[in-house]
């Protein structure tokens, strides 16, 4: 194909098609261009081909996938025709990539300084003192505190937000022309997400970078992108500047994405005033450090004197940053964390905190949990039907003969939008959204009155997230089940919660109805959380009331 002469375009993808060995198409003729100094967002739900497009540009397709046709131009260089040795000189030097999960992308047995230094040595020939000075400079630029010390740390010694900053430093180490950011803020809480977005915007403007930003978060798109392309089933169905995309989307799929991304309604207060679960003075303190013979012990007050009430048929959302104590509190209410102090009064009848494991077992059927990572929560060696039946058998709920239990499992799978024949499959055979539905079915199997939902939508795209929220709302309306919904995503609160409790450093700092907390937050920390949310979300929330 003739050379493309476009001084504004730094990366151009033309008719790019990728398929499986059997000919099944993955990408179906992708066309777009990335201009100098712009942020171009590639959006769509999981499985639409966004990340595969990024890997195709980097020539890092998974084994077995093949290029069918197309061209990828980096200025005057066509990448697909290059020998691998030449492509290796371009990766990291002219095109760099930030991956979605830094803990998987970083080498756990190398210090962060060694990993950043490796790119500097390979592409720029920096060694010794000059390399160390450049690593320190990069860590300072991305906001890592005490970089002279932290460059000798390993990835596990850093927080999630700090690891993402290290990934950005590695990507920018050799001053590339193009940066590909693949879901760099997924599963980060709103405060850390805002920090990472601000950092990327600042570095992009300072360096004049062209950024291909892959995401499913419409709030992030509104915050950072100049132009947007929407992917659906391996095709780009719409391209537009960001303002036009948000105000007047043309394709029905784009319209549905935006509808799923934003809060639609505020739920009415729960009709009942009595308590289903009342927690009083809950404390979970951990003793850390010091070794066997040291007297210096550090006390971590993960949950520090929390009171909360959950009513029959209502959803109480528990929000806060990572490390605020949300999940620890949830596990304490389930008695999966040992309490330091406090009462857990259930149905105004019994203090669950005082029961030993044998006495607690009959009550476990009433309080169930849906975990954040449904894949890790299921035994990979058991079929999903066996996993769902397990609670029924252990807690002696419902029929105890196998045939009747299979009928019950089939009913539950249909209730959560799956098929009865799915019960004989294994967890790895399901998508993320399907696995989350299986987690809901397993929780429902023992007919609970309260379900603790621990970040159940944090890693899901907007479409699947909306489906899971709608499913939970429907089940609540039909069965009167209550939820403690733990989340850091403020945009979903009007769709799922009746009341909100805001948690900071182990304490509840503010509590109230959803509209009260989102419209007129009283505590500075709540105000900070809302300010960190993408502007699109803040505007949509304010328009609800």
UniProtKB/TrEMBL annotation:
Keywords, ordered alphabetically: ATP-binding, Cell inner membrane, Cell membrane, Membrane, Nucleotide-binding, Translocase, Transport
PROSITE patterns registered for this protein in UniProt: ABC_TRANSPORTER_1, ABC_TRANSPORTER_2
Record-level Gene Ontology MF annotations: ATP binding; ATP hydrolysis activity
Subcellular location: Cell inner membrane
ABC transporter domain ranges (all copies): 11-258, 279-530
Lipid bilayer topology: Peripheral membrane protein
GO annotation, biological process: peptide transport; transmembrane transport
Broad class of the protein's primary localization: membrane
An annotated GO cellular component: plasma membrane
Matching SUPFAM superfamilies: P-loop containing nucleoside triphosphate hydrolases
Pfam family, one: ABC_tran
Entries under InterPro entries matching the protein: AAA+_ATPase (IPR003593), ABC_Ni/Peptide_Import (IPR050388), ABC_transporter-like_ATP-bd (IPR003439), ABC_transporter-like_CS (IPR017871), Oligopep_ABC_C (IPR013563), P-loop_NTPase (IPR027417)
UniProt entry tagged with the keyword Iron: no
Family the entry assigns: Belongs to the ABC transporter superfamily.
Protein name: Peptide/nickel transport system ATP-binding protein
């Amino acid at each position: 194909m003739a050379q493309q002469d476009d001084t504004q375009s730094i990366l151009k993808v033309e008719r790019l098609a990728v398929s499986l060995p059997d000919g099944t198409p993955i990408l179906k003729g992708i066309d777009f261009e990335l201009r100098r100094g712009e942020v171009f967002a590639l959006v769509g739900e999981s499985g639409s081909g966004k990340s595969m497009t990024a890997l195709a540009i980097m020539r890092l397709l998974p084994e077995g996938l093949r290029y069918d046709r197309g061209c990828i131009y980096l200025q005057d260089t066509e990448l697909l025709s290059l020998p691998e040795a030449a492509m290796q000189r371009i990766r990291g030097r002219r095109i760099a990539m930030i991956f979605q999960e830094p803990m998987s992308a970083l080498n756990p047995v190398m210090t962060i300084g060694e990993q950043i230094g490796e790119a500097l040595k390979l592409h720029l020939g920096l060694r010794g003192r000059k390399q160390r000075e450049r690593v320190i400079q990069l860590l300072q630029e991305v906001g890592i505190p005490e970089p002279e010390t932290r460059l000798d740390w390993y990835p596990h010694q850093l927080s999630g937000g700090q690891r993402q900053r290290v990934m950005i430093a590695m990507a920018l180490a050799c001053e590339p022309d193009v940066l590909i950011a693949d879901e760099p803020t997924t599963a980060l809480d709103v405060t850390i997400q805002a920090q990472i977005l601000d950092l990327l915007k600042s570095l992009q403007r300072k360096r004049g970078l062209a950024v291909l930003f892959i995401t499913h978060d419409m709030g992030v798109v509104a915050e950072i992108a100049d132009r947007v392309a929407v992917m659906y089933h391996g095709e780009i169905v719409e391209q537009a500047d960001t303002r036009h995309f948000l105000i007047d989307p043309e394709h029905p799929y784009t319209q549905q994405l935006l509808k799923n991304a934003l809060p639609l309604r505020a739920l009415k207060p729960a009709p009942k005033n009595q308590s289903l679960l009342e927690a009083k003075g809950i404390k979970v303190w951990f003793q850390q450090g010091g070794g066997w013979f040291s007297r210096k012990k550090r006390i971590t007050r993960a949950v520090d004197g929390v009171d909360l009430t959950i009513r029959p048929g209502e959803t109480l959302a528990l929000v806060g940053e990572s490390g605020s104590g949300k999940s620890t509190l949830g596990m304490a209410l389930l008695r999966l964390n040992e309490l330091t102090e406090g009462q857990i009064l259930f149905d105004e009848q019994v203090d669950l905190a005082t029961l030993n494991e044998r006495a607690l077992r009959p009550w476990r059927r009433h309080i169930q949990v849906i975990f954040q990572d449904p894949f890790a929560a299921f035994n990979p060696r058991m079929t999903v039907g066996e996993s769902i039946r397990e609670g029924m058998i252990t807690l002696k709920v419902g029929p105890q003969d196998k045939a009747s239990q299979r009928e019950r499992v089939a009913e539950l799978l249909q209730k959560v939008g799956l098929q009865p024949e799915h019960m004989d499959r294994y967890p790895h055979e399901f998508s993320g959204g399907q696995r989350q539905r299986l987690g809901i079915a397993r929780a429902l199997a023992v007919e609970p009155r309260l379900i603790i939902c621990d970040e159940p939508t944090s890693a899901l795209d907007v479409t699947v997230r909306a489906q899971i929220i709608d499913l939970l709302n429907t089940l609540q309306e039909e069965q009167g089940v209550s939820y403690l919904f733990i989340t850091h995503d403020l945009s979903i609160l009007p769709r799922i919660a009746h009341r909100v409790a805001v948690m900071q450093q182990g304490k509840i700092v503010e509590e109230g109805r959803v509209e009260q907390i989102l419209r007129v937050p009283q505590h500075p920390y709540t105000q900070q959380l809302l300010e960190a949310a993408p502007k699109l979300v803040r505007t949509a929330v304010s328009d609800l009331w």
